[in-house]
Give the backbone structure.
Amino acid sequence: MRRILILLLTVGLGVAACNASDDDNADGVGVSNGETAATVTLVTHDSFLVSDSVLEEFTEDTGIGVEIVPAGDAGSALSQVILTKDDPIGDAFFGVDTTFLSRALDEDIFAEYESSALDEVPDELEVDPHVTPVDHGDVCINYDRAAFTDTPPPTTLTDLTDPAYAGRLVVENPASSSPGLAFALATIAEFGEDGWLDYWEELRANDVLVVDGWEQAYNEEFSGGPNAGPRSLVVSYASSPPASVDPDAEPLPDQAPIGTVLGSCFRQVEYVGVLEGAAHPEAARRLVDFMLSPTFQADVASSMYVFPVRTGVELPDLFDRYAELPDDPYTLEPDEITPDQREEWIEQWTDAVVR
Amino acid sequence: MDRRRGALTTAALAAVPVLFVGVFFAYPVAAILGRGLFPDGSLDLGALGDVFRGRQVEIVWFTLQQATISTALTLAVGIPGAWALSRMRFRGRRIVRALVVVPFVLPTVVVAVAFRALLGTGGPLGSLDLVPSLWAILAAHVFFNYAVVVRVVASLWEHLDPSTEEAARVLGAGRVRTFVSITLPALAPAIAAATAIVFLFTFASFGIVLILGGPGLSTLETEIYRQTALFLDLRTAAALTLVQLGAIVALLTVTGRAQQRYATAQRLRATTSIARRARTAGERLALGANLLVMGVLLGAPLATLALRSLRSTDGALTLDAYRGLDEVRRGPVVIAEPLAAAATSIRYAVLASVLAVVVGGLAAFAIARGRGRSARMLDGALALPLGVSAVTVGFGFLVALDSPPLDLRGSWVLVPIAQAVVAIPLVVRAVTPAIRAIDPHLREAAAVLGAGPRRIWREVDLPIARRALLLGAGFSFAIALGEFGATAFVARPGSTTLPVTIYRLLGQPGPGNFGVALAASVVLMAITAVAILVTDTERLSF
């Protein structure tokens, strides 16, 4: 027994030692203002992805390393940042989107910063001096082309209540899913606060299926997804068509196997900001600038399946070929989506749709 | 003098677990509760009143209901299973013993995928239309917790001296009467321990309820997650957490009493002399029925999962998904490295199980030595983490562990620590009954022969506890491997674990990612099975 314990302890300590040696920092590298930062810490959500070479370029240019701290899904990550605002867990926070922005601004978690690179970004995306837009993803209904050879696919939200589409739509629960919430907001933007719940009554009458998250909706229920489920319409993203094409296929198909209902899209913009009270504010500002640079912006489509905010950035080939973007997506102003308002909408939706 | 020294030793043994769970559980939970209960510096219990109105009452009621039914069902299926694995010798027994534990340690996302693959639309049992429903939740809960009942109960059953039962039979008691009046009371401590664990797990079940219950069914756990992570409404979350804590304390008090009442010294025997081949037709039938239940209940979802991982989108069999285990790329971006994540998971799990066995083992000896109320309280206190929301603990870490000497936020160390906190109660519950059941005559005999207390501990208690400790180590390792709670809600730099990787792959669009996620789940299952096989050293005799 003692031998086993000693063995376990040795292994344990060995593991600990290995881990400890991983995070010894390099020597401090000078940044202007006399601030010394070897590493800038970016708090973000679990879906954040970036090519290694892109971050390496930042480190080469500035001498600043980047530590990525994923903090759960988008909602949970923001809650953690708010909870720790007196003693921030990082220098910058990326991943607050349109639906959560008002809470972030109410809680004063961000310091003001206006990046000079914002010149290259359309003005309508700049909503507040505390945050910098980085990308946008459009939440849209996708359809499985193979299932719409006889009937045409729907083109608007109203079409979805047509009996021709009965039993075909799967959506996510707005209480637990970010695209689910965005789609609910699209219906509020279209039908107004007085009419949206009536619309959902009609969707219910048309046998809409509500599932908990995007994974189930797309992977399991959607006929164009990996499990070839029974439903041919799904709430997903404008970037889903390029994602559905096998990049190694030769020749590449003319059309992606799934299409986008352009009249159903809600635009979600994702923002980054320098955290108030950050240990390395100057390094954080350099990182914000870099996230608007052509290098980073060109990477967001292939890494996170979202669209860059910077104009004139070249998209990856598959996006170029297969992604369709709406000209006039649904939007709501961030101050229309206050935390209380959002909670009330979710409660109303829950009462009307899943009870 | 001797008694006083004994009490001192017990207190010293208890100090380590009390300190550990105090710092890494009670303090963080108290800190986050404090934020909700004292929003402006003064106590505000208004939210507690709101909890007992309308929707929240439904949630509390449903939580208790589903946990009670789940626990009862698991016991009904698990106790016969424990008999089969402790009393019957059959070919493949060791493998079966290891395999039954696999479901228990799978991440909920994987279990949910497996159950949806089996019961969902298009699955082999899709026509039953069970997803989403309460039935799907119950089935998954039994699947998940079967191992707890089987293994905890079997670990005692396999040491019960059968001669008492044989004596009862000789004296004319029937099978049923013998079981009810001899075997069941002897097993009561283990059954009570298993009941407590299963109830706590199902009471605090998160992913299963969320994914298999559908959007209409909420439990306390899913509601606390919503209020904390999504709305940051700490006031409501704190009120719900108090209700959760109240229910758990009540349950632990009841099961703790039961454990104590029935904990009598029994003559334990080495398992090798007890398990035997099925002799009568009835025994063979019972054994066969149990193996069939295990095969269907545990095998079907896992087999569906494994088959799915081997199926390409057009239905052909392929190993493509397994080729992606090294690295999943999308152009220049590495989305996931499942094998590297598996290595990380193993490292964390080794650390977590060392922590859990040391801390939990000390606690078990302290609890077994002290018989009074303080022992019961320590036992109960250590079990609390099983029933409290992972998101409460995770957010508590953020608020509480932010200043020296405990400035651990954002440190990888929190991952194995959080895993150990969840594993400790299982070690305690696996080890305590075994120590309690040690025949005091053994110790007395050793003392008469001149052995000091330390030597008695080393040569009597420890060898008997060793198997239970090893079982606890295996459980801890497996739990840490599959843990997807507190660590998923905590900001954590650096290496991702395998469950997190699986979850990420499931959330990524792209034709191949789903398959790789399933293949990674199969790998996780395999590592778990091996870990349990290695620690389940049935052949070592003591």
